[in-house]
Design brief:
three-stranded mixed β-sheet; Peptide Deformylase; single chain; binds ligand UDB; alpha+beta; binds zinc ion
Length: about 190
């Protein structure tokens, strides 16, 4: 079982690498890694388990954050408008379009790989379109798809995608943003 101690921190060189493509068909090792990553994120949203294991309530995790420099991540994030939960295990994603229109998380972004006290405002595209391989973690099935995301799941996707490029939110954060509207939760 993965724990927060397995999540490497800013300063570790792996976080700055460009992650490598995952070879398909998926190896048992890579499948198990992705499954373990999803387990950590899901567990981190369970109040009992966050207390028991001292987890930070998380909405996504990329493989480089557990010191595996491969293009994989998982997301478990609610849409701020509909409440719909976006649960994705993704391999070899490629964002093929970023909307011109930008937004940012009003409360700022943090990162499991950055000191808990540090948050910052990060400009993100309002909508993205990505080519992905989606992994069904129950059946091990892989589906190629083109997905469109907006709102909070779109922001999480862009944040995790940046990890695969060796980019952290601290590289992009701005002190003030006043030319675009923030994305707000629960309104
Ligand atoms: C997170 N959680 O998991 F606005 F329902 C962050 C941490 C670093 C604070 C744990 C988070 O943003 N939760 C959240 C925010 C909301 C509404 C809500 C839950 N990450 C994941 C990460 O570091 N992945 O690499 C950081 C997020 C910042 C923006 C997107 C990902
Ligand atoms: Zn992060």
């Amino acid at each position: 079982m993965l724990l927060m101690k397995d999540v490497i921190q800013d300063g570790h060189p792996t976080l700055r690498l460009r992650a490598k493509e995952v070879e398909l068909p998926l190896s048992d090792e890579d499948f198990n890694t992705l499954k373990d990553m999803m387990e950590l994120v899901v567990n981190s949203q369970n109040e009992e388990l966050t207390e028991k294991y001292n987890l930070r309530p998380s909405v996504g995790l990329a493989a480089p954050q557990i010191n595996i420099s491969k293009k994989m991540f998982c997301i478990v994030a609610p849409h701020e408008k509909t409440g719909q939960l976006y649960k994705l295990a993704v391999i070899n994603p490629k964002i093929i379009s970023f909307s011109e229109e930008k937004t940012y998380l009003g409360g700022g972004e943090g990162c499991l790989s950055v000191d808990e006290e540090i948050t910052g405002l990060v400009r993100r595209s309002k909508r993205i379109k990505a080519r992905v391989n989606l992994v069904n973690l129950e059946t091990r099935e892989i589906t190629k798809a083109v997905i469109k995301l907006n709102g909070f799941p779109g922001i999480v996707f862009q944040h995790e995608y940046d990890h695969l490029l060796g980019v952290l939110f601290v590289d992009k954060m701005e002190e003030y943003i006043s030319d675009i509207e923030p994305l707000q939760f629960g309104e």
